[in-house]
Specification:
Elements (H helix, E strand, L loop, with lengths): L6 E16 L5 H6 L6 E16 L3 E5 L6 H9 L6 E6 L3 E4 L12 H11 L4 H14 L15 H12 L6 E5 L7 H16 L3 E5 L3 H7 L2 E6 L2 E6 L1 H15 L5
Parallel strand pairs: 3-7, 3-8, 5-6, 6-7
Antiparallel strand pairs: 1-2, 1-4, 8-9
The structure holds adenosine-5'-diphosphate and magnesium ion.
The site of adenosine-5'-diphosphate has 12 residues, from strand 1, strand 2 and helix 2.
Length: 254
């Protein structure tokens, strides 16, 4: 790490539990027979005692099997979820590219969605107008600008969402697997933009099942398992750890 570089993301002792209702008491008869029964909740600990920092300008990868807490962690960083323990500090403007469809309205055209999504992500009307053509061109959506989003394939939606996300004046880009929905050619162009973003000194937090991409692009990586940090550091080491773990515990397909 370069001397003098600041910290982009500071996470200390973060925990997040979901309460899942269970034990159904859905019928009127049950309610009538047991009016004072409360719904029982099952606790699902999605993150426990997560502590790590990401330096400014770092390309930081997060890997782990399904259900290990990767998306929950990104949502906590983005402020979409509130952690129930620990602290999160984000030093800079975030561009969260986390879940497809968030901030998009399927009944509106791509044009209107760009306006709305760009505004939600902090662009002024004028900035959106200035960047509109670039957004559309990067997504290769020129012919579809005035079509409703519900007629877009998931690949087209990803292209649109990514094109808007990278036009925001962010310091930190959060990417959650979504790129995997795009085709190969688009992914390649995305990695080119990520390289540019990195050259500009911005920070990238990249969740992916594409272990080859993690190895190739990331400065450091973290392995999550059952909501805990299992390994962190050099991507090669972390992936080796992951590989050993998959073979030892047969945690299931990644
Ligand atoms: N909104 C939610 N409500 C209840 N449980 C959730 C919710 N989001 C995630 N979880 C649970 O938290 C755990 C971690 O999920 P997630 O962060 O989506 O994992 P990953 O992205 O690594 O696949 C899982 O057990 C999942 O079922
Ligand atoms: Mg996920």
């Amino acid at each position: 790490m370069t001397v003098g570089r600041g910290v982009a993301v500071e996470v200390a002792g973060v925990g997040k539990t979901f309460l899942l209702p269970h034990g159904h008491r859905t019928t009127f008869k049950e309610y009538f027979l047991h009016p004072f029964h409360r719904t029982a909740y099952e606790r699902q600990q999605a993150l426990s005692d997560i502590t790590f920092d990401i330096a400014e300008g770092e390309f930081f990868g997060i890997v782990g099997p399904n259900g290990s807490g990767k998306s929950t962690l990104l949502k906590v960083l983005a402020g979409i979820y509130r952690q129930d323990a620990g602290t999160v500090r984000v030093n800079g403007v975030l561009s969260p590219f986390i879940e497809l469809g968030v901030g998009f309205n399927m009944e509106l055209t791509a044009r209107d969605n760009i306006l709305i999504n760009g505004t939600l992500l902090g662009l002024t009307r004028r900035q959106i107008n200035d960047r509109f053509d670039e957004i559309v061109a990067f997504g290769e959506l020129e012919r579809f600008v005035d079509q409703k989003l519900k007629n877009f394939s998931s690949g087209m939606q990803v292209r649109l969402a990514y094109s808007v996300a990278i036009q925001v004046d962010f310091d930190i880009l959060l990417l959650d697997e979504v790129l995997a929905v795009g085709d190969q050619e688009f992914q390649k162009r995305c990695f080119e933009t990520l390289a540019e973003i990195r050259r500009a000194g911005k920070t990238i937090v990249f969740v992916s099942h594409d272990l080859g991409a993690i190895k190739e692009h990331c400065d450091r990586a973290m392995l999550l398992l059952n909501g805990s940090i299992q390994a962190m550091g050099d991507p090669e080491d972390v992936l080796a750890h992951y590989d050993a773990l998959m073979h030892r515990d047969a945690v299931g397909p990644i």
